[in-house]
Write a structure and sequence with these properties.
101 residues, mainly alpha, two-stranded antiparallel ribbon, DNA-binding, DNA damage, WH-like_DNA-bd_sf, MGMT family protein, MethylDNA_cys_MeTrfase_DNA-bd, MethylDNA_cys_MeTrfase_DNAb
DNA sequence: GATCTGACGAAAC
DNA sequence: GGTTTCGCCAGAT
C-alpha cells in the first residue's frame, strides 16, 4: 500500500463529518466506522497532522473517557456552543451526548 | 529495517 | 473512579 495517509484521511473525515451537532464520537467509534476497530490512535494522529478543522467537526471526536484532546484547547468551547453537556471542565457527558450510530 | 511514539481502547487490578 | 498493561497501525528517526 503506497497510498498512505491520503486514503486514511479520507476515510476518517468521511466518518467524522457524519457526527451530528450536539453529539460526540469516540476515536474507537470512528475507527470502527472506517473498518479499523483497533486503529483508534490512527484517527487521532491523522487528525493532528491534517489541517481539516473548520471543514470537518474534528472537535466532536473525543476519547473513550469523554476527555478532550490535550493539544486541542478550543475543542471544549466548540462543543459547548453546539449543546454538548460536560460533566467536568474537560469531560464530556458521554451518557447523554455520545453519537448513537 | 528496527525501534519509538502517538488527539486511543479495552481489560485487569 | 484511577492506574497499569497490552494491543494496533502508520509515521518519524
Amino acid at each position: 500500500m503506497t497510498t498512505l495517509n491520503e486514503d486514511l484521511i479520507y476515510e476518517i473525515l468521511s466518518a467524522v463529518e457524519e457526527i451530528p451537532a450536539g453529539k460526540v464520537a469516540s476515536y474507537g467509534q470512528i475507527a470502527q466506522l472506517i473498518g479499523k476497530d483497533r486503529n483508534a490512535r490512527l484517527v487521532g494522529k491523522v487528525l493532528s497532522i491534517s489541517d481539516y478543522y473548520g471543514e470537518y467537526p474534528c472537535h466532536r471526536v473525543v476519547n473513550h473517557a469523554g476527555r478532550l484532546a490535550p493539544h486541542f484547547t478550543a475543542q471544549r468551547e466548540r462543543l459547548l456552543e453546539e449543546g454538548v453537556t460536560f460533566k467536568d471542565r474537560n469531560h464530556v457527558d458521554m451518557k447523554e451526548c455520545q453519537w448513537d450510530c
